[in-house]
């Protein structure tokens, strides 16, 4: 067999083994979710639905249409997207921290064939799965109780932004869960970094509300790319390439950083 062919086959086998290890970790975490699925879904629906009722219903009589879109409809995609990305962050951060500091599951992986890439990819896929599942549940509830509707065709572009956005937040959660030892500090990261970035990205108001000289900086935020790109895709069926490139580059960077951070911790 030619050496080049042997190398290709060897890389293919390693890739299959890596995927198998990552999926094993993902499946283990999904079984944990299944045991508490009702309470998880109840909790995840309460917050965005409360925000929708407070802002979408409570303020609709005081806020005119935004860009020709009724205000309750304007904020609905942002609430769905927010649910998906925050669920991805929460699952990755708390799962990594719990398995590292309490159950010591990560320590057990040291004596198994599972690699650093297996663990990181498994946790990222798990966070992504949590985000998508919980986003779907919130979408169903908003559909049930509100006039928000969208074309099924628009879902393709919308899912692009949500998948990449959830991947970014899942990578950030993995980094946080790897580097932080005290659980209360995870909450501080959410309060000081995650929540401000989300609310600054135009979930409840158009970006044009910012001063003209501030808008370019806000548009550079990956959270703006997630929420504004997803909103444009879901409501109007448009695909914003600038936001797409922003998310692709950000996702690549944080994935590499998550792998590097976790690998450094495993070597200690």
Give a written overview of the molecule.
The protein has 268 residues and is an all-alpha fold. 78% of the residues lie in helices and 0% in strands. The protein has one domain. It contains 10 helices and no strands. Helix 2 packs across helix 5, helix 3 packs across helix 9 and helix 5 (116-145) crosses helix 6 (155-179). The protein is globular, with a radius of gyration of 20 Å. The relative contact order is 0.13.
Describe the structure in brief.
The chain has helices spanning 3-35, 37-57, 71-101, 105-109, 116-145, 155-179, 183-199, 215-219, 222-236, 241-267.
Terminal Cα span: 40 Å
Query: What is the beta-strand fraction?
Result: under 5%
Total number of distinct structural domains: 1
Radius of gyration: 20 Å
The level of helicity is: over 70%
Instruction: List how many beta strands DSSP finds.
Output: 0
SSE sequence, one letter per element: HHHHHHHHHH
The chain-level mean pLDDT equals 81
The total count of helices amounts to 10
The biggest sheet, with number of strands, parallel, antiparallel or mixed sense and barrel status, is:
none
Unreliable stretches, pLDDT < 50, 5 or more residues?
A: 4-13
Shape: globular
Classification by helices and strands: mainly alpha
Labels describing this entry:
268 residues; mainly alpha; 78% helix
Summarize the helices and strands and which ones pair or pack.
Blueprint: H1 3-35, H2 37-57, H3 71-101, H4 105-109, H5 116-145, H6 155-179, H7 183-199, H8 215-219, H9 222-236, H10 241-267
């Amino acid at each position: 067999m030619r050496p080049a062919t042997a190398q290709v086959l060897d890389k293919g086998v390693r890739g299959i083994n890596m995927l198998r290890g990552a999926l094993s970790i993902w499946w283990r975490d999904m079984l944990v979710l299944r045991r508490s699925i009702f309470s998880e879904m109840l909790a995840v629906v309460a917050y965005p639905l409360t925000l929708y009722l407070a802002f979408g219903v409570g303020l609709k009589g005081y806020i005119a249409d935004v860009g020709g879109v009724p205000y309750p409809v304007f904020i609905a995609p942002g609430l769905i997207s927010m649910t998906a990305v925050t669920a991805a962050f929460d699952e990755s951060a708390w799962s990594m921290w719990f398995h590292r500091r309490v159950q010591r599951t990560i320590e057990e992986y040291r004596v198994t064939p599972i690699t650093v890439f297996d663990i990181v990819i498994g946790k990222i896929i798990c966070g992504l799965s949590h985000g998508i599942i919980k986003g779907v549940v919130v979408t169903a509830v908003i559909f049930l109780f509100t006039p928000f509707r969208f074309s099924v065709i628009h879902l393709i572009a919308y899912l692009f932004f949500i998948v990449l956005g959830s991947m970014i937040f899942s990578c950030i959660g993995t980094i946080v869960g790897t580097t932080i030892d005290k659980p209360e500090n995870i909450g501080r990261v959410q309060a000081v970094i995650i929540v401000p970035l989300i609310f600054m990205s135009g979930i409840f108001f158009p970006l044009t509300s910012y001063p003209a000289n501030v808008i370019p900086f806000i548009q550079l935020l990956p959270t703006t790319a997630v929420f504004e790109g997803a909103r444009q895709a879901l409501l109007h069926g448009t695909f914003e390439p600038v936001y797409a490139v922003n998310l692709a580059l950000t996702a690549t960077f944080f994935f590499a950083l998550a792998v590097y951070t976790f690998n450094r911790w495993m070597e200690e």
